[in-house]
Design a protein that fits this description.
This protein is 33% helix and 23% strand. The protein is built from 13 helices and 19 strands. The strands form four sheets. Strands 8-7-6-9-10-13-12 form a seven-stranded mixed β-sheet, sandwiched between helices. Strands 16-15-14-17-18-19 form a six-stranded mixed β-sheet. It has a four-stranded antiparallel β-sheet with strand order 2-3-4-11, with helices on one face. The protein binds zinc ion.
């Protein structure tokens, strides 16, 4: 039932190509896009350190017409993608914080959660999501492999610093009992052996338990030209159809699904053991709106062409500024900025620096694959460069007014889908 040849990079110290579908095992995968070679987004070299060799990995998207999954063409060892010094914390953006508090409000009401119910968050990061359940009075546990786990623990959120696996699921269950809810936000696309993860989740879940996942949404990614969210952390790009296929293989029904605004467009999906919950009309509604088969191929081909054009448009826009000796900086350095910078070919001669808000662990490091330094945001207000490209353009509406309010007077630009002066 499960694919015999799952690409496993863990322990390889390197990468392995994806030769058959990670979900259904189909070995006739179609290439739909290549962004060339990319550095790992979370290995950021300290500013001033002599340049040394770094691995670069092919960044190709594959489509499986059997289970509808769109997936990366390579699996990179998690040790490379999630180094212990992983510089990402999820508590930072308002959209994410609001979404997680909404996830709690929605699920607590819909599932009628009781005080004694045990909730587990996989890939819990700094505890932003699970903290909502904790404040609601439920028993909680976060599971997080990177050092960000320590930040959560310091904030008083019980967190286990481990990679999630069946063994970890068994340990947690024997110590705390079965979980009423298991959540996985944005890590469900990251972990390489997705079948083992779902099996681990089943191990941990009570019979009437519910698994809630949030993933970046493939259809939104295509429609809004968010190719910059393609990087090696994200092994899989889910539609509801492909998620339903995957969960169905493990005896889980998707019983509710809806779009949410995080990361420029994601989906929240509720699943439970077959027959334990009535299926809401939201599921069929979303499935009907998704392209399938040849319609999906056509959408992906159009996407590929638009990605290429967007690169050329950005080049043209930047060239006009540079020919007038304009100075350009970047605003914020999320992982997606690494894909954009490297695919478009921006370097330190084009982008003077990238700003991050005070406290960001990325300050004092170079953007991956470049010598563009990341500096504290205050610099831009003293410098007043001519143009600031907002790399986290999916939250430009939140960032732009703040930058104006703090006194930046130059041009604010969103780079995708086409350069736009705000
Ligand atoms: Zn497949």
């Amino acid at each position: 039932m499960f694919p015999a040849k799952v690409a496993r990079a863990a322990g390889s110290g390197a990468s392995v190509p994806v030769e058959c579908c990670q979900v259904c095992g189909n070995d006739r995968l179609e290439t739909v896009l290549s962004l060339g070679y990319m550095p790992p987004v979370n290995q950021m070299v300290p500013v001033g350190e002599a340049p040394r060799q770094l691995p670069w990995f092919p960044t190709t998207l594959l489509y499986c017409d059997r289970c509808e999954l769109v997936q990366l063409g390579i699996a990179v060892d998690p040790v490379i993608i999630f180094p212990p010094e992983y510089p990402y914390t999820s508590g930072m953006t308002r959209v994410l914080r609001d979404n997680f508090s909404d996830l709690y409000a929605e699920s607590a009401q819909m599932l009628a959660l009781g005080k004694d119910d045990f909730i587990v968050d996989i890939g819990s990061n700094d505890g932003t999501l699970i903290g909502n359940f904790q404040r609601g009075g439920h028993r909680v546990l976060g599971i997080e492999p990177t050092d960000v786990a320590k930040i959560a623990s310091k904030r008083g959120i019980p967190t286990l610093q481990r990679y999630f696996s069946n063994d970890v699921a068994r340990e947690v269950k024997s110590r705390h009992g079965a979980a009423k809810v298991v959540t996985a936000a944005n890590c469900f696309a990251h972990i390489e052996d997705v079948h083992a993860i779902v099996e681990g989740i089943l191990e941990l879940l009570a019979h009437d338990g519910v698994f809630i996942s949030e993933s970046h949404y493939l259809i939104g990614l295509i429609d809004k030209l968010q190719y910059d969210t393609i990087y090696h952390e994200h092994l899989r790009y889910y539609s509801l159809g492909s998620l339903q296929h995957l969960l169905g293989m493990h005896g889980l029904d998707v019983f509710h699904a809806r779009p949410i605004p995080t990361h420029g467009g994601s989906i929240r999906v509720y699943a439970a053991r077959k027959g334990t919950r009535p299926i809401a009309p939201s599921v069929q509604r979303m499935l009907d709106a998704e392209p399938h088969g040849d319609a999906m191929r056509a959408r992906l081909a159009h996407f590929r062409r638009e990605v290429t054009l967007s690169k050329l448009r950005l080049h043209a826009f930047i060239r006009d500024i540079k020919e007038k000796d304009g100075r350009i900086v970047g605003i914020s350095a999320p992982s997606r900025a690494s894909t954009l910078v490297n695919y478009v070919g921006l370097d330190e001669a084009i982008i003077d620096y990238v700003c991050e808000i005070e406290g960001s662990l990325k300050i004092g490091k170079y953007m991956p694959g470049t010598l563009i330094p990341v500096v504290e945001e205050s610099r831009i207000f003293a410098d007043q460069p001519d143009c600031a490209i907002i790399f986290s353009w999916h939250i430009a509406d939140e960032l732009a007014p703040k930058l104006r309010q703090k006194g930046y007077r130059g041009m604010l630009v969103t780079p995708l889908p086409t350069p736009r002066v705000l």
